[in-house]
């Protein structure tokens, strides 16, 4: 095993190396986390995720002038007011009034929501995303108690099999609190509005699903069981709203393009975990503990999870950097 020093992580390790962090000793883990603390997360040209799967973003913001932000965005991307476009297209960036983030002061509108087009993992999109974030920064957009960020990913990312849905549900149930630490971004707590618009899922919502799943023959049957109210931290199925996508509503809003890129990366790799049969026993065993009220998610559990989700140390290090922001090990300097 490699020795770790208090320097930039990648002076000692190739970012593409797949180091199994769950197999490191306690001392090696502490050294690794200290190294990660000195290693900024890089903004990538594109992610190491499938390019044939579509996704989209909704970025809520507060306080920045709505019209001024819109006019500046027109210099960097193809953007229109949402009301001017068919809701079935999503070919352009759009900006719209957002009921909680927008407000009028002396007849001037501040705050709103910016929606990306439906996109694939490509260089042009991430260039545009960086420009959008720069415009928000230049206009002093705020992301406090109300502004969230939502990610939609096409359901084509899963194989449309009942067992995949069940594994996704089990994984979210087991790790919900830990995932929320990641989706807080660089903040220590969830935004206030999440209590209303991105509520944590409750165990009772799943009870009948796992009691009856052996009787299900079609994915549509289990999807009907997943028609929970939309305002939970993850939406599996919402007719007429996002029935073709999984929607992650948990993310704190931000104009930091690096954090947004990480949000997208985590969500894609959640589905990679679901499709990885090698993790089946890991998830099933944890779920049995959960059902018997004996589950304790430890550092060892999380390191194993990240080993299953990611196949390179760069992704694992970036994830640990955001995950450990609330501990003595990480100060989140120079993200």
Which class do the helix and strand fractions yield?
Answer: alpha+beta
Query: What's the N-to-C terminus distance?
Result: 27 Å
Uncertain residue segments: 1-5, 326-335
Q: How large a portion of the residues is in β-strands, by DSSP E?
A: 5-15%
- Quaternary organisation of the protein chains: single chain
What does this structure look like?
The protein is α+β, with helices and mostly antiparallel strands and 335 residues long. It is 38% helix and 14% strand. Strands 1, 2, 3, 4, 5, 6, 7 and 8 form an eight-stranded mixed β-sheet that branches. Helix 1 crosses helix 11 and helix 4 (162-183) crosses helix 9.
Question: What's this entry about, in short?
Answer:
With 335 residues, the chain is an alpha+beta fold.
């Amino acid at each position: 095993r490699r020795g770790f020093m208090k320097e930039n992580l990648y002076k000692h390790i190739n970012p593409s190396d797949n180091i199994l962090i769950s197999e490191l000793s306690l001392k090696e883990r502490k050294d690794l986390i200290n190294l990660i603390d000195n290693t900024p997360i890089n903004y990538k040209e594109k992610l190491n995720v499938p390019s044939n799967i579509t996704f989209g973003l909704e970025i809520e913001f507060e306080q920045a002038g709505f019209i001024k932000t819109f006019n500046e965005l027109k210099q960097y991307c193809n953007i229109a007011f949402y009301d001017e476009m068919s809701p079935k297209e999503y070919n352009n960036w759009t900006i719209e009034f957002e009921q909680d983030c927008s407000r009028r002061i002396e007849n001037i509108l501040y705050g709103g929501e910016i929606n990306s087009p439906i996109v694939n993992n490509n260089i042009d999109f991430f260039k545009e995303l960086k420009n959008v974030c720069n415009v928000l920064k230049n206009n002093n957009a705020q992301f406090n108690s109300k502004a969230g960020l939502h990610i939609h990913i096409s359901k084509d990312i899963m194989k449309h099999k009942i067992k995949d849905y069940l594994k996704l549900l089990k994984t979210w149930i087991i790790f919900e609190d830990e995932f929320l630490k990641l989706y807080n971004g660089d903040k220590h707590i969830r935004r206030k509005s999440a209590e209303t618009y991105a509520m944590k899922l409750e165990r009772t919502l799943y009870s009948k699903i796992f009691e009856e799943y052996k009787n299900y023959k079609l994915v549509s049957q289990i999807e009907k069981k997943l028609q929970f109210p939309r305002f939970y931290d993850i939406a599996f199925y919402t007719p007429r709203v996002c029935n073709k996508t999984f929607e992650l509503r948990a993310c704190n809003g931000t104009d930091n393009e690096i954090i947004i890129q990480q949000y997208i990366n985590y969500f894609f790799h959640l589905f990679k975990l679901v499709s990885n049969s090698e993790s089946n026993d890991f998830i099933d065993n944890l779920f049995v503990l959960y059902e018997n009220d004996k589950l304790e998610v430890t550092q060892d559990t999380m390191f194993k999870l990240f080993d299953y989700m990611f196949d390179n140390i760069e992704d694992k290090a970036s994830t640990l950097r955001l995950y450990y922001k609330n501990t003595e090990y990480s100060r989140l300097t120079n993200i």
